[in-house]
Amino acid sequence: MLQGIFVVVTNAHPAQRMTTTARAKIWLRHYYQQGYTGNELVRIALEELQEEGYQTSYGFIRKLLYSRQEDIGLPQSQQKPEDEGKTYWDVGSDAAYWEHQGQRPIRTLDEALTFCQADLEAWEVDRYQFNSWDVTMKGDDGQPIKRTNYQVKVWFKRRQDEHNLDQLLDQFATKIQNRTPFRGYVARPKGKQTMLEIDAFDPHFGKYANKQETNDPYDITIARERYEYAINKVIDRAFDDKVEQILFPTGNDWFHTDSYLHTTTKGTLQDQDLRWWEMWEHGIQINLQAIEFLAQKAPVHVIFVLSNHDWQNVYKMASVVRAYFKDHPGVTMDCRPVPRKYYRYGSVGLGFCHGNEEKHADLPNIMLRENQAEWADVKHMEWHLGHYHKNKRLEYKAADELNGINLRFLRSLSGADFWHHKNGYIGNLKGIEAFTWHKEEGLIANHPVTL
After folding, report:
1. What is the pTM of this model?
2. Percent of the chain having pLDDT more than 90?
3. What is the CATH number of domain 91-160?
4. Of 55, 58, 122, 227, which sits 20 to 30 A from 383 (CA to CA)?
């Protein structure tokens, strides 16, 4: 499919990598043993090489297959199929070009689109051109034969979303205005000295994973069900009459992508099950509902954590949520566009960032430097990070070795998409974490919810 054409560059130094020929032989032999033959064998080997960052072509792999079968380890009975010609793709962010030349008779636009397998939901034809000419060749018996070569060129442009941005914003604003936030909350008696922190990190709303490809399906319906179940389960397990407030860090790859092209903030293409505006609407509605639900239990402080999949979308969501709760007596929030955020509760100091940018060994000193004046008497300090979708804890000692600073990498509710599954990034337990903090004693309880 056209939308799937991209190159993954590996981190290996060129001098440490196999040659293209050697690596191609491995993939050809591997997929032949899996039952692939002919042109399908060539295509799948080419895809693997391109994803590993090798610069090669269909013609090179095809020639290698049919000229060096014994060297590769394939039986000599493997027959060379009819020539399918040469195909070329050039894909950009907003335009694409496809060209095919060979003896396959492609005479109409429909035949060309069927053959090239362009994703017509993402692309539309801008213009096209057909050429053909006769050539004389020598047949197997040595006699001249006449053949017709066909050339097809198709220029594509990316489809513009049928929804006008101004109209979408107006419609969404109307939906928000028609929602009446629950203004009340249960006032907590004075004198309580515990805070419940709920960390539902990395939900990746909008991510798509197909069960047949990953054995672990994921879409907006599954994501929402997991999220709501986990939040309710935490409240059932951890909330009691000693809790005086709730700390609710959110963001942290809340959305799976950050653009209408289904890419992350830095432009990495992602598998997504929704249009960009649908993902945006679903994500904000889920966030609003979660905060409203928690605010009925106790005052809530919300911290929006910016992240690598959705840096801009999280900030824009924070602006909408802040406006929605601006008159709510039980909701406060930190919506600042900074990469690291902090919260103090008595003698407890907590830091939040996504965890993909800073060196982890530097984070304790960063915490101390950025809070040097305000946290002089803080005794319990921790960083709570996302990004890695797994539970891990590290401890660093401060310079005076009196207080340790913990780094907690927290789990995710999200399933593995095709790329992560193919590369073996699987098996992490899914769930969320919650912590009960005492103003003086620090951490007194951990409440994991595992799916």
Report:
1. 0.62
2. 38
3. 3.30.110
4. 227
